[in-house]
Amino acid sequence: MPYATTRDNLELYFEEEGSGTPILFVHEFAADYASWEPQMRYFSRRHRCITYSARGYTPSHLPESADAYSYTHFRDDAIAMLDHLKIPAAHFVGLSMGAYSSLQVGLHAPKRALSLTLAGVGSGFEAERLKEFREQCETRARQFEREGSEAVARNYGMGPGRIPFMVKDPRGFREFNEAFGAHDAQGSAHTMRGFQGGRPPLSEFWDDLGAVTLPTLIIVGDEDDSCIAASLFLKQRISTSGLAMFPKTGHVLNLEEPALFNETLERFLALAEAGRWGPRDARSVKA
Description:
The longest helix has 21 residues, at 127-147. This protein has helices spanning 37-43, 71-84, 97-108, 127-147, 149-156, 163-168, 170-181, 185-196, 206-210, 225-237, 253-256, 258-273; strands at 3-5, 11-17, 22-26, 48-52, 90-95, 113-119, 216-221, 241-246. Strand 3 (22-26), helix 1 (37-43) and strand 4 (48-52) form a beta-alpha-beta unit. With 287 residues, it is an alpha/beta fold. The termini are far apart. The mean pLDDT is 96. Helix 2 packs across helix 3 (97-108) and helix 4 packs antiparallel against helix 5. The chain has twelve helices and eight strands. It is 45% helix and 16% strand.
């Protein structure tokens, strides 16, 4: 099995397919490397595609210390994946937690990213919701430790942003939720507490976001209420960003609407690689 070594000597499982300009897919909290299969199959026809399981997600290693699960660890792990594969820069495509990590790479090491695709990003963004969001993360972490992943999946997996997936594709939703229920409970607890509950809100990166020059695509479902405000915030703050909103769609964008996701991403990557995805023309901004 292929593994990449992180800066703190953990091993992350990855898979790659295809050749060409590289794309690194970064998964969400409730998923792992396998959740990008519809994109790996489609984009590997023309790109070198890489997907991996984050620390705390089997078959990657599960550090025992809770201190090893900060958002900076996950950011640096994505960079370490490129280092291992000797890739100078790649297109970053992230969903939810993976979108946050991808954005952090764009802020911290922009030369390693060719573009950023941020899907379902920013849950807990609003200042008035931040305290409640962090309390919910702590409660969820304790539930993982007390009841295990299968029990959490029955609850967390039925969150409002995931219902549209269940309504449209019960079979796909069931498969996704069963995989989530098989995650390592302690690794998930550490991730929920350290990354999800401990990460700074996007608003704390106000100045840094204004300086982003990478081609950036933001995707959000119109029924993913927790991420709409954050997506609008990023669109308004990043001059080189474009916003796509999928109708009647929730949080698990790439699996809920795989064809639409692939089409939207493909168009963006083509424009970005052609140098045709630049900053917004100032004349289009309403005074």
